Every structure is written in structure tokens, then in C-alpha cells.
Write the C-alpha cells for this entry.
Amino acid sequence: MTRQIKAEWLKEKRTANYKLLLIAPLLFVLLSFLLVLLMGTSPDGEHSYIVAATFNWYSLLILPVIITLMVTNNLKKEKEVNQVFYHTTGASLKKQMIAKNLVVIMELFIILLLSTILVFLLGNILLDEKLSILTLMSAVFYLLIGSLPIIAISFILYHFFNRILTLLLNFILGNIAAAIAVETWWWLFPWSYNLRMMAPALGVHPNGTFLSSGDPLLNQNALIIGVIMGLLSYFILLFLQILLTRRQKGNA
């Protein structure tokens, strides 16, 4: 399994995904920073405009797009001759699919980590805000877990549709999540996991505004539910990916 992961990681070099690791954090955090400059000083010491803008945008707009691009880029680079090689040599397509998932997860973690470091530095140095690196890193953890089902869904969607349709579906469903995240049944809609967990994690409403003390959305149980559902749904969807891979191999 380690060899498959190394092989998939090596394939990512000199690809669009490798460039996304640096471009995505720099671009979107910079956009958030410019927006904050227009908004002015944060309302109090507990809330931060740059944190609210960055993490809300990531949950609502950016992550569905980035995840789709990373998944489709990862799959698109596989040439037909590579698949013939896997079939003729008896190499495990199951391990290859798992390795691809792990590589995309690692890439997403790097993007989230770099973005968080940039937010922390800009907030503390240029905006003179007292941001907690522990709070921001906990948000990274919840975003990563909440994104797992979307990674798996994107692999499955691309099995049936092209890149444009996969991107469009994730983008539309990601925007619908803003309305669903405030409902009691949000846990049934994977695209809402990130938005819902950012509420208790950072005090940010799914619509991007700050939550006041005592708001029901601050209930910490949402974090537990989000983590459980994120992991559970991901492994179910990963199993579905493996079934589709076996079916593809059987039809080859």
C-alpha cells in the first residue's frame, strides 16, 4: 500500500494539483484579506472578519471547487495504457483507488494548513487581532473531516460524468448547503458538514455572519455529529468506489 501511495504522489508532481497547493491558499486568503480591509475593524476581540470570511468562503464556495479539481485532475492524468497495465499485471485497482483518495486528502490538508497559517499571520501581524492558532487548527481538522465525503462523492461522480458536470454539481450542492446547514437534518446532507461545524468551532453562521452568545448553532454536539457522519459516510462511499472499480475491471 505504501508503494501505491508513493507512486500516486509522484504522479502529482508537475501537475495542476501540485500548483494548487500553493496557488489556492495564497489567492483565496489574499481575497479574504482585501475584503476585510474594505469591511474595517472587527467588531470585538472575540470575532475576526478574516477568519469568518476565509473559513466561510472555504466551506461554501472554495472547497467544493478545489476538491472537484483535485479529484478530476488526479483521475484524468491516468492514461489508457496505465489501466491496461493494471489489468494485464493483476495489480490491485482497489489499492490504487485507496491511494488516490489518500493523496487527495493529503493535498487538501496541505491547502487548509497553509491557508490557516496565512490567516494567522495576517490577522495577528497586519490586522492586530489576537487569533488562537489552536482554535484555527481545530477548524482545519473539522474542515478536513467534513470534506471527506465530498472527496469520495467527487470520485464517484467523475466515474459517471465529465469534469464540468462534476464541478457544477458540487458547486450547486455546496451553495444549497448554506440553507440546509441550519436545519435539524443537516447531517443527512454531506455538503453542509463544513458549514455546520464552523458554527460551534469558530462562532460563524453558515451565512457568514457572527453568532451571538446562546445561539442554538453554537451547540458543540454538532462537532461530534459532524465528525462521526463525515467519517462514516466517507468509508461507505469509499466502499462504493471500490465496488465500482471492481465492476470496471470486470467489464475490461
The two ends are 23 Å apart (CA to CA). The chain has nine helices and no strands. The chain has a mean pLDDT of 86. Residues 1 and 167 are 29 Å apart (CA to CA).
